[in-house]
Design a protein that fits this description.
Residues 131-179 are annotated as: Disordered. With 200 residues, the chain is of the alpha+beta class. The protein has helices at residues 5-13, 98-111, 113-142, 162-199, and strands at residues 19-27, 30-39, 42-46, 56-59, 63-67, 77-84, 87-94.
Length: 200
């Protein structure tokens, strides 16, 4: 792949950058202190800070970032490994402290385009879950509510309503009135018949 060097240099020195700082970089057999600049998935390295022309760059695709157990001479050492068909390329780097090493390892890992694709896929999955949850909530709100039936009222048979007591007293008084009229009628008939007898 051909790269326009002028444009590449301009891009390497432009702001903002994702991360920058000194690391010890192993070339051939020894470690050399170099100024590194991370922009996107491109890792540039310069001889020193302020240089305009980078010594080289690493395209951070298809790589793994791991702690290095091979370089015992260097503390806080990690490696960037590229695996291609028939070839494994390994680059060793070392930081000044544990915190710096961990920060660089994380930044380089997250710079990969493959990693960004995984992050985009994960964000899309989370958005779909949120959309489905919102749709379910909207459907549940729009569903017609089942009318609530009023509770059945059961009357206590021992509690007589005033109207019913009046009716019962009224109906109870009716037989007495009938008997009273019957008695008066019989007395009247007896007297009337006696008077008739006297007249005859």
């Amino acid at each position: 792949m051909k790269i326009n060097e002028k444009n590449l240099y301009t891009f390497a020195n432009s702001k903002p950058v994702d991360r920058e700082g000194y690391l010890y970089f192993k070339r051939d057999t020894k470690f050399s202190k170099r100024w590194f600049v991370l922009k996107g998935n491109l890792l540039f390295y310069f001889e020193k800070k302020g240089d305009k022309e980078p010594l080289g760059l690493l395209l951070l695709e298809g790589c793994t970032v791991e702690l290095s157990a091979e370089e015992e001479s260097q503390q806080y050492c990690f490696q960037i490994q590229f695996m291609t068909p028939g070839e494994i390329r390994t680059y060793f780097m070392s930081a000044d402290c544990q915190t710096s090493m961990e920060s660089w390892m994380k930044s380089i890992t997250c710079a990969s385009y493959d990693y960004m694709k995984l992050m985009v896929a994960e964000l899309q999955r989370q958005l779909e879950e949120i959309d489905n949850r919102n749709k379910n909530q909207t459907l549940s709100k729009n569903e017609p509510k089942t009318p609530v039936k009023p509770p059945r009222q059961r009357q206590n048979p021992f509690n007589k309503l005033p109207s019913s007591s009046n009716q019962s007293s009224h109906s109870a008084a009716e037989p007495s009135e009938v008997r009273r009229r019957t008695i008066w009628q019989s007395l009247y008939d007896t007297n009337h018949s006696s008077s008739n007898t006297d007249v005859l």
